[in-house]
Structures
1.
Amino acid sequence: MTHLLTVLGTSNYSVARYTWQEQQVETRFVAEALCKLFQVDRVTVLLTKEAREKNWDAFQQQLGDRVQAKDIPSGRTESEIWQIFDAVVDVVVPGEQVIFDITSAFRSIPILVLLA
C-alpha cells in the first residue's frame, strides 16, 4: 500500500503542471498530482486550523474519499512540536510505502515528519 503524507498550508495555490517521466498533471494541489503520478492508495494531510479554514474544502474535493485530515498545531512551542511528531507516528502504518510531500510544509514540519 502506498501512503502519501502531505502538508496543506494557507497559500493561494495556483494551477501548476507536474511532470513525471511521460505523464503530466495540471492541478492546484501537488498532492493530487502525486496521487495520479504514483498510484497512491491513501492520503493523510497534516493541516493547521488556519489551513483547514482556507484550503481544506477545495483540497478534499479534488482528492476525494482516500484523503484523511490530521489536525496539527502550528509548531510554535516545544509542546506543539511534540504534538506534530505524535500525529505523524499515529498515521503511518509499519510496512507501508510512504511518499512524503514537503512542497507546502511550514517551518520545521518536514524535519519532524522525517524523524517520526
Note: The longest helix spans residues 49-63.
2.
Amino acid sequence: MTKTSYLYDINGAYYEGDETRHYFASSGSEAEFLDRLKRANGSFSVQIKLGETIFAAVDRYRSTPLFYRPDDPQKRIASTARELGRLSQDILKQAPSLALAEYLATGYTTEDSTLHPAIKQIPAGHYLCWEAAKPPRIVEYYSFRPDSTLADDPDILCEQLDDIHNQLARRLIRSLDGRTVLLPLSGGWDSRLIAHILKRQGYEKLICFSYGSPGNPESLLSQRAAQELGYRWIFIPHNRRLWYRSYHSPERNDYFAHSFNYCSCPHTQDWLAVKYLKDKGLIPEDSVFVPGHAADFLEGSHLSPALPELDTISPAYLVNSLIKRHYSLWNWQDGGYRALFTDHLLSEINPPATMNPALAAGILESWDLRERLGKFIFNSLRVYEYYGYQWRLPLMDTALMDFWEAVPLHLRVNRKLWHDYAVRYLPMNVEIFSKPGLSDRLTSRILKSFIGDLTDIRYGRFLDPSNPLDTIKAKVSSLLLKGVNYPDFVDPEASIQMCNLNALQSVLALKEALED
C-alpha cells in the first residue's frame, strides 16, 4: 500500500510524504494549526501532537480518510477503520438504524458516522482537537459555498481560468518530479483537460489508458484524443468472464477490506484496469495516477437548471433534491425512510426557513462535496494505493476551487462558463462523448425493467457467464448475510441483473466485512 500526501504552502514551498507533517508540526497553537490548514493547497491527512493535545485533519475534500474512537484511552488516529476495531453482527445491531439505511441507500455513511457505533471519521474540511481529559472536538475549517463575487464577464473569467490551469499544471509537474503520469482518459472533458494542460507545458511522460468492452464508443474517443495530443494510449479489454474470475478472488476481497472502512462503498470502476496494468508490467513502478475527479462538480454540473429561476427556496426543496439525487441506490418509496432521512438531513444542513438560489446552491453543493465526493468518488483513490502507486488531484487545486466558488451562479448552471472556455482554449478535432438521446434512454429503461441490463458486462462481477440461465435467476439474497436486519427496501428477491451496481457492491462489502 502506498499513501499519497502532498501540499503547497502559501509561499509556494512544496511538501510531500512526511514533509507534510512537518509543515503542520511547526504550529504553536490551535489557531496556528487552523491557519496552516486553511492555507494548505493539496491532498493530505495529518496528525500531530502539540503539548498534550492531539490534532488531526483531512483536506478540503477528504482524499485520505482518518478514523478515531472517542472512547479510546490511547487516543489513536488511524487511516483505516479496521485498525480501531472489527465490525461484527452484534456490533452492527448497536448502530443507529439510520447508519445502515443511509449506507445502503447512498453507498456511504454521512457526517462523522460509520457502521461501527464506536468508530468515527473526520469529515471533509474538518479537523479534530483532542485535549487531555476532554472528549474530542470536530471543527469545520472549510465548506464549499459559492458566493458569485467575480465579475459577470465570460471573457475575463475565461482568461482567469486559463491562467489558473497553467498554474496548477506547473504545480502538478513539480510534484511529479519526472515520474510518468497515468491518465484514465475518458471521452469527457475533465481528463482531457489534464492531458491538454500538461501538453501545453511540454510534459511528455504521460500514458493514457481506457478500458471496457472492445470497440466501446467512449474508448474510441479516448484513443483519438490521445493520438491527437501525441500521447501513448493503452486499452484494457474487459468481458463478463474476466470480471467474474477477477471479482471472485482473494485479491479483490482484500481490496474491498482495504477500502470499505465501514463507511464507503468500495470503488471498482478502474480496479480491474489498474490490476491489469500492474500485473502485465505495462507501466513504470513509480507511475503517478492523475484522474480528472470532480472538475465537473466545480463547474456546476450538479446544479439544477431550474434553481436560479426560483424566487425563494424552502428546506423541503433542499431535502427532496438531496434524497432524489443521492439516496437512490435502491427503489424505495417510503416505509418510514423518507421521514428518517429527512429529519437527519435537516439536522445536518440546518437551512433557514427561506433561501435565495445562491444560498440554496451553496448548501446543496457543500453537502455533495463533503458526503458523496468525499466518501464515494475520492474513495476510488484507494485502488491506486492498493497497487502501490501515488496519485494526484490537480483539478481539486485550491486556486481552482476558489475560482469556481466565486463564479456567478448562472454561469455555472449547465457548465455554461466551462463550455465557453473549452471552445476558446481547448480546440480539438475529437468530439466529447455524449450519452444516448432521450428516446434511446427510455427504450433502455423499459427493457431493463423487464430483463435487466444484459449488455453491461460489469454484471459479470456477480453473475457467472458460463451459466446464462442461472444468471437470469440470481437474486440479491445471494449477497446478503443471514441475521442482518437489512432495511426493507433491500429486496432479497430482486434480480441481481436489475439492481444498481453500487447497491450490489455496498451489500457485498458489508457482508464480507461481517464475515472477516
Note: Residues 154-176 form the longest helix (23 residues).
3.
Amino acid sequence: MTGDLALDSAQQAEQRMRRLRSEHGEHLVLDLSGLRYLDSVGLSLLMRFYLAAEGRGGSAVLAGPLQEAVRRVLQITHVDERLTIHPTLDDALAQSLPPGADLRNG
C-alpha cells in the first residue's frame, strides 16, 4: 500500500485487499512501507481484514519499514500489540506464509 489509507481511499483499498484475498487465500502480508498516513477508517479496515483472515484459519501480518506517522497510529491505538509487524516485506514473507506460498506479485 502506498500513499494514504484514509476515508477517501479506504473503499479502493478494501476492494484491492478483497481481490488479493480471493486470489491468494487467507494468509495475507500487507506491505505498508509506502504508506504515509493512516486514519481511523484505514485502521478499521486493517483490523477487519486481520479478523476475517483469523476467523477463516488464516493470518494477516504487516510489513514495513513503517513511516513514523503510521507507526505512531498503530502504537497509540495498541494495534501494534495485536497485529504482527515485520520490519521488511522479505521478513514477513519468510516468517508468516505457509511453505511454498509467495505473494510478491499481489
Note: The mean pLDDT is 90.
